[in-house]
Specification:
five-stranded parallel β-sheet, single chain, globular, 8 helices, FAD/NAD(P)-binding domain, 29% helix, alpha/beta, binds flavin-adenine dinucleotide
Length: 394
């Protein structure tokens, strides 16, 4: 790694200096970086200064969003405050949005106009939602990301629905998130609106892709029981309807876009090796295959050694490996591999305090599964909240 002092390190308001220490920058408050902050709190980095630049002081724990929509969690219960976590880890926090990366010059550009140089970079900024085909819906469209914006707008949808008869909500996206959002929305709307209608629009190959036939059958039965229709086709948006490639039009008072993660556009000119969809190509050690001082985890990566689904589960589990590898890289030690388990357990909330378990070819549904999911999710958020408040690291 080149000595940091040879290059300019600029931050808004910070004088240009030449430093003897390495600058490690975490970009994004994604799931994997929570484990990195934990690790640095346990054992502070030596010979390095650490920064976290992230778009929002709070990071949303997505697993609890459907439960929050359904009214099972209070305001903010799904949020993790990054400020005390950064402080405890000895990390300087910058609330700003990364909108450019020059991997060869080792610089991030920020939407405030600042430039942040780094010696070692770790990216966990999550994916974006491509809303361009649905843009014709204007203010009726709610992209699920940025999640904090979605959370701010959902109560407005409920208020509007409460005033209308035959309210129609369309969810575009038939992955696990789209299904959970549809079921949570149906549960919430049924309590406040007369005769609400919830529909899902999805490409056929996108309907619960990666899940077993048993899970798909359970989900279909649940959707049918709740009178949630599924329409297959490519969706575009008009002023007040979702138009399907089949020629059908579905009237929509609001549309939630949950079409899965797309790669941030600013990665394109970064010089990093990207796959065809623009995701960062990393090996099992979570390091860019083109730049050995850049690591990445979560929804923005594609593994070149094996298929790993984009999900919160993997973003969380990659965290401890990422933490170990950032430290190993600084100390010139061997890197570890993130090897996912052969099967991943998913619990899909049905909105009515039940959940559908999906594990390999096995699927089941029930109230106890919701209690398990609720316990896992609350425990995750509480860990990062209690730890931050008390300074203790479990
Ligand atoms: C409704 C819903 C429910 C879901 N439920 C589950 C579930 O139960 N189980 C599961 O495994 N997966 C679930 N997922 C998928 C899961 O949310 C994602 O896979 C996961 O969030 C990816 O984590 P990440 O760390 O990559 O990014 P994120 O969780 O999206 O975190 C990104 C972070 O980076 C910050 N950021 C974003 N852009 C920038 C930028 N340009 N500059 C600086 N900071 C930035 C954000 O503020 C945020 O702190 C769900 C998704 C949705 C939408």
């Amino acid at each position: 790694m080149a000595p940091a002092g040879r290059r300019l390190h600029l931050m808004p308001g910070e004088p240009t200096d030449s430093r003897a220490v390495q600058r490690v920058v975490l970009a994004g408050g994604g799931h994997a970086h929570l484990a990195v902050l934990d690790d640095w709190a346990r054992a502070p980095l030596r010979g390095a200064e650490a920064w976290l630049v992230t778009a929002d002081p709070f990071t949303a724990y997505s697993g609890m969003i459907p439960g929050w929509m359904a009214g099972h969690y209070g305001a903010g219960q799904h949020l993790i405050d990054l400020r005390p976590l950064a402080k405890r880890a000895g990390v300087r926090l910058v609330i700003d949005t990364v909108d450019g990366l020059d991997a060869n010059r080792r610089e991030l550009t920020l939407s405030s106009g600042g430039v942040m140089a780094f010696d070692l970079l770790s990216l966990a900024v999550g994916g974006e939602v491509d809303i361009s085909p649905l843009a014709g819906l204007g203010a009726r469209l709610l992209p699920v990301r940025p999640m904090n914006d979605f959370v701010a707008r959902w109560p407005v949808v409920l208020e509007d629905a409460a005033r209308r008869q035959g309210f129609s909500l369309v969810i575009v996206g038939g992955g696990a998130a789209g299904i959970e959002l549809a079921l949570a929305a149906e549960f919430a709307l049924r309590r406040i609106s007369a005769d609400p209608k919830v529909s899902i629009v999805t490409a056929e190959d996108g309907f619960l892709s990666g899940h077993s036939q048993a899970t798909i059958a359970r989900v279909r039965a649940e959707l049918a029981r709740r009178r949630i229709d599924i329409f297959f086709g490519e969706a575009t948006g008009s002023e007040d309807a979702v138009l399907l490639s089949t020629g059908m039009a579905i009237h929509a008072d609001y549309v939630i876009a949950a079409t899965g993660s797309t790669a941030p556009r600013w990665l394109k000119g970064s010089g990093l090796a990207l796959d065809q969809q623009g995701f960062i190509e990393v090996g099992g050690d979570l390091r860019s295959i083109s730049h050995d001082n850049i690591f990445a985890a979560g929804d923005i990566v594609t593994r070149t050694d094996r298929h790993v689904a984009r999900s919160g589960v993997h973003a969380v589990r990659a965290g401890p490996v990422l933490a170990a590898n950032l430290r190993a890289k600084l100390n010139g030690q061997m890197l570890h591999q993130y090897i996912p388990r052969r099967r991943t357990l998913y619990l899909l909330a049905t909105g009515d305090r039940r959940a559908i378990l999906s594990w390999g070819k096995f699927a089941m549904v029930g109230g106890l599964l919701w209690r398990l999911k609720d316990w896992i999710d609350r425990r995750f958020v509480r860990h990062h909240t209690i730890a931050a408040e008390t300074g203790e690291v479990n």
